[in-house]
Amino acid sequence: SNGGGAFWFGFFERTGMDQLCKYVSIRQPESNRALGLETESEYRQRWISIRVIYFTAFVVYIAFCCVATSLWPYLNTLDPDAPKQFLFYLFAIPSLMQLVLSPLFGYWTNRASSIRLPMMLVIVFLIVGQVLYAVIEEIPNNRKYALLASRALVGASTVACTLYRAYISAATTVAERTKTTSYMALAQTLGLVGGSAVQPTFAGIGEEGFQVLGFRVNMYTSVGWFCAALGVINLVLMLPWFFRDHNIAVKEAMSGNAGLADGKRAWQTMELRYLPIGLMLVAFALLMFAYAALQTLLSPIALDQFNWTNEESLFYLGILMTAGALISCILFLMLDPLCK
Predict the structure, then answer these.
(1) 325, 196 Cβ separation under 8 angstroms
(2) Residue 165's closest CA among 149, 179, 185?
(3) Which of 208, 270, 305, 328 could form a disulfide with 189 if both were Cys (CB 3.0 to 4.6 A apart)?
(4) Nearest-5° angle of CA 324, CA 329, CA 334?
(5) How far apart are CA 90 and CA 86, in angstroms?
(6) C-alpha closest to that of 222 among 206, 238, 236
(7) How far is CA 94 from CA 24, 43, 64, in A?
(8) 212 — phi, psi (to 5°)?
């Protein structure tokens, strides 16, 4: 059994190091150079942009899930008379905003020549939503509705998921797409890990906290300031010095058919397989339904069943969700080698 354990440990160690080395390196491989679709400088810039997208996925998910375990205690602190039914509105409105805005931003992105402006706008939504979340205690009245507005803005920022997934499909070749998509999913899962770990990390500040420049910083509001700071960094990375649009998928399609004169014709010749696409959409919808239900019910049930204090619930539930997200990270790291 010791030999078997050593084998699997060595396998995961080699696989993890191989994947890490591939991720860090941005030198153009011979297989890509042989395609003749881009220079080494263009390849390097394309992969820098893709890694900015990875960071965006990380930030969006960490901002979305970091309040999952603290939303109910925070609502009780802001408005002790708020019913539990209002918590469901707080969890539902981000998904509603994404449902309404995703088609609109998708249409805008298809019309525009770059995703930079739409992406920067949704990042601004994220920053404003998190700052509002952090300063709600300074608002004298209608705090629960201010919290609802904050959640709506954060929900609007999740439109970035639509934008960066579309970008990844256009900015990668067929050979790169599975690996890149798995790394993007890994970045999202790391955001879930970070979001789950952020709340128990700041739980030590306590509910009273301290004052900074007239604003109260406690175990709830510190999360908002932290996510807003990540959003500012993300906004800077979307500037032209770091991020540029690349559409190598069209170049690859055109190189495979010399009769195609432009990128639009290249997209039109691609045949969509609607049945597997539909099945994947249904599977993803069911997955998100289960995740949203877990987020909504976890904190109230834990507080009622275990008689925890607010600090204890943030700490223990944060550890629980972090452990689950770490397991997901391992699975995503294994995805690319297993697909081969």
Answers:
(1) yes
(2) 185
(3) 328
(4) 130
(5) 7
(6) 206
(7) 34, 36, 9
(8) -135, 115
pTM metric for this prediction: 0.76
Instruction: For residues 19 and 170, give the distance between their C-alpha atoms in angstroms, rounded to a whole number.
Output: 22
- C-alpha–C-alpha distance, residues 187 and 181, integer Å: 10
| 244 CB-near residues (< 8 Å, 6+ apart) | 45, 46, 49
317-332 b/e with 16+ CB inside 10 Å = b?
bbeebbeebeebbeeb
List per-block mean pLDDT (blocks of 10 residues) for the chain, which spans 340 residues.
50 47 62 72 87 93 80 85 84 88 89 88 95 90 91 92 88 84 85 77 78 82 91 94 83 64 58 81 79 70 73 72 73 68
Residue that is written with structure tokens 């739409």 in the block: 118
Q: What are phi and psi for residue 207, nearest 5 degrees?
A: -75, -25
- In order of their start, the domains of the chain are 39-339 (1.20.1250.20)
Q: How far is CA 178 from CA 181, 276, 327, 337, in A?
A: 5, 16, 20, 10
Tokens of 117: 């402006």
The answer to whether the CB of 238 falls within 8 A of the CB of 120 is yes
Which secondary-structure segment (H or E) carries 219?
none
As a whole number of angstroms, the distance between CA 160 and CA 114 comes to 14
Could you tell me which of 179, 186, 187 has the C-alpha nearest to residue 339? Answer: 179
DSSP state of 173: -
Residue 249: the pLDDT is: 76
Q: Read off the tokens for 313.
A: 């619930």
| Strands of the chain, DSSP E | 210-212, 215-217
The identity of residue 177, as a single letter, is R
Query: Two tokens at 290?
Result: 């289960």
Q: What is the full DSSP assignment across 322-333?
A: HHHHHHHHHHHH
Measured in whole angstroms, the distance separating CA 193 from the mean position of its chain's CA atoms is 11
